[in-house]
Specification:
Layout lengths: L3 H15 L9 E3 L8 E3 L1 H9 L3 H12 L5 E7 L3 E6 L1 H12 L14 E5 L11 H19 L3 E5 L7 H13 L22 H17 L1 H15 L3 H24 L17 H10 L3 E4 L2 E4 L13 E4 L7 H16 L3 E7 L3 H13 L8 E7 L2 E2 L16 H18 L5 H21 L7 E2 L2 H4 L7 H20 L15 H11 L1 H10 L3 H21 L8 H25 L8
Parallel strand pairs: 5-6, 5-10, 10-11, 12-13
Antiparallel strand pairs: 1-2, 2-4, 3-4, 7-8, 8-9
This protein binds arginine (ARG).
The site of arginine has 8 residues, from β10.
């Protein structure tokens, strides 16, 4: 469906043209003086010079033309030459009726769908998921859903970290504890045990221990580096042990991401890029891009216009080990081979920006991507605690995601059960849904690139710009609709009437912004635009609800129209929160 602003603009453009002016002057925008009008056109001022006429004269002519239009209730020329517009209730109602019967609630699918890979999540194998990975998962999931809603072919890839030093550290620590394990016997040629020599909780303790050790123990660190290189070179026992680490860890990650309502299409890992590395390196050498510098193989990526230093990309370390950069470059090759994407979006902590500048430049220079392939870095800010420092546990440690979620669910459960008797099992279920909305909305309502403060009290509040408030509004609508049905009414579509009240019209106008909002959120990879849209919409709904007797309305046709307006609002809200990655309960 056309956006309402475009429909209105076309009408005004035609009026400009009919008066002998260039049509493009008729472009309309949302009013910045809502007290005076709903939409405005400033074209008369823009055209004044060209036509050597006072802007107000032009505005008056155009307004005269618009008098017969079915779109407008009022069209006024105002000094020095504004055209102030209010749309007619009949027109808005007609627009909403078209929305009701549109399968996508007015959002048009892309005419030329793109293939888009979204690289998000990015958890590291064998390290517990912590809040740092939360943002990537939440933002990436929403961006994925928005792209998909617009009809693009989207592949969400978790791109696990499984090929770096952390693997060498874990292997070395396991070896120090259990040197007798068969994985370390180089002469062993048989099959390796199917059972992992550790559980997930042991694994989660092994990594931090090893990591701390490597900072003080030179010998240990050297061994870990060697183990990393051995793993990458395919030493059998190391590879088998690594496979155990993966299996144990991925099972746990799937559970955690599942709890967040985050679903990946692909569970690829850094190591999947390994087969592409030798050929990539050869080609970079052969084509003269890569050269040896102090033993390491590097590619220059600095550009003349750089205002800050962009260091060369290190492709291989002097011991031949692949780095984060290497696997990211080789992954681009793999993705091109598997999907031939038009675009790859990386949802990663903004502190990694330099890494991605290097990777993108290197990929372009060395021809890993086609010229028109878009590589986009969607860098997000840090989630801070109330003290303004990166979010920590009460004890000052790194907060495990599981614990954070559990804390929020507990708080929601407390609030839900506070004042009334509810079924415990149902309340737990509801607390889960509302808790997730609190976390996700709290995150997504901020522009991704900004740091934000994780404020439990604020995020879980049923009032203000929060997830629970949005869910509460949806549940309120559902409850009215249910009461209407209990009284024998049926909720249908297509009977919306022109509004009679001001709050009703405001609500209707708010709904019409859905398509432009989703489009903008897509273009700018900006889920926060959807958040501010639904916050406005929820406010309009509640305002309308407080001012209108719905269930006791005596005029049946009017009541039907109210009910359909509520139902459409619900549908738009529920579709929007689905794009954000959460959903609403039936009651709360
Ligand atoms: N595993 C990385 C980290 O924890 C994030 C991976 C992001 N994606 C990528 N293609 N580099 O920092």
């Amino acid at each position: 469906m056309k956006k309402i602003l475009d429909v209105i603009s076309e009408e005004v453009c035609a009026a400009f043209e009919a008066c002998g002016y260039e049509a493009s002057y008729g472009k309309v925008s949302v009013s910045n003086r809502p007290d005076l009008c709903e939409y405005q056109c400033n074209g008369a001022m823009a055209g004044a010079k060209k036509y050597k006429k006072a802007p107000i004269m032009i505005a008056k002519e155009v307004v005269e033309r618009l008098q017969g239009s079915a779109l407008f209730e009022t069209a006024d020329a105002v000094n020095p030459g504004f055209i102030n517009l209010r749309v007619s209730g009949a027109f808005v109602a007609e627009y909403l009726r078209a929305m009701q019967s549109d399968g996508q609630l007015s959002v048009e699918k892309a005419k030329e769908p793109q293939t888009i890979v979204i690289d998000y999540g990015g958890a590291n194998v064998a390290k517990p998921l912590h809040v740092g990975h939360l943002r990537s998962a939440i933002i990436g999931e929403s961006v994925k859903r928005i792209c998909r809603f617009l009809g693009h072919k989207v592949i969400g890839d978790v791109h696990l970290g499984d090929w770096g030093l952390q693997m060498g550290l874990i292997i070395t620590e396991v070896k120090a504890r259990q040197p007798e394990l068969v994985y370390f016997d180089e002469s062993y040629e048989g099959d390796y045990p199917a059972e992992a020599p550790f559980t997930i909780s042991e694994l989660e303790e092994i990594y931090p221990t090893a990591s701390a050790k490597s900072k003080t123990d030179e010998q240990f660190r050297a061994e870990a580096l060697e183990a990393t290189a051995k793993l990458q070179n395919g030493v059998r026992g190391y590879h088998a042990l690594w496979q155990h680490i993966l299996n144990v860890s991925i099972a746990d990650l799937k559970k955690n991401y599942g709890n967040l309502n985050v679903e990946f299409d692909l569970w690829k890992k850094e190591s999947d890029a390994q087969p592409y590395i030798p050929e990539m390196v050869d080609a970079m050498k052969r084509d003269g891009y890569a050269y040896l510098d102090q033993g390491a193989l590097i590619v220059d990526v600095a550009e003349e216009s750089d205002t800050k230093e962009v260091p060369p990309c290190i492709i291989l370390k002097s011991d031949g080990a692949a780095l984060y950069t290497t696997t990211d470059l080789a992954t681009i090759i793999e993705r091109r081979k598997l999907f031939d994407p038009d675009q790859i979006i990386y949802v990663v902590d903004k502190r990694q920006e330099m890494h991605f500048i290097q990777v993108f430049r290197c990929a372009r220079r060395t021809g890993l991507v086609k010229e028109d392939t878009k590589l986009k870095f969607l860098g997000f800010g840090t989630m801070n605690g109330k003290d303004g420092k990166p979010f920590k546990t009460r004890e000052g440690g790194v907060m495990r995601l599981e614990h954070l979620i559990a804390d929020i669910e507990e708080e929601m459960f407390r609030k839900i059960t506070e004042n009334h008797e509810v079924d415990e099992a149902e309340a737990r279920q509801t607390a889960k849904l509302v808790g997730l909305s609190a976390i996700k909305y709290g995150d997504l309502s901020n522009q991704a690139s900004k740091d934000y403060v994780f404020d439990l009290d604020k995020f879980t509040s049923f009032e203000g710009n929060t997830g629970p408030y949005i869910l509460y509004t949806i549940v309120r609508i559902k409850s009215i609709l249910n009461k209407y049905k209990e009284k024998g009414g049926t909720v249908e579509k297509g009977h919306l009437l022109a509004p009679v009240g001001a709050s009703e019209k405001s609500l209707m106008l708010a709904i019409t912004n859905f398509n432009s909002t989703v489009e903008q959120a897509y273009e700018e990879c900006a889920p926060h635009k959807i958040c501010s849209f639904i916050y406005d919409l929820a406010n309009e709904l509640n305002h309308f609800y407080h001012e209108t007797k719905i269930l006791s309305e005596e005029d049946a046709a009017r009541q039907k129209s109210y009910i359909e307006l509520l139902d459409l609002t619900r549908e738009v809200l529920e579709t929007s929160i689905d794009l954000l990655g959460f959903s609403a309960p039936e009651r709360m």
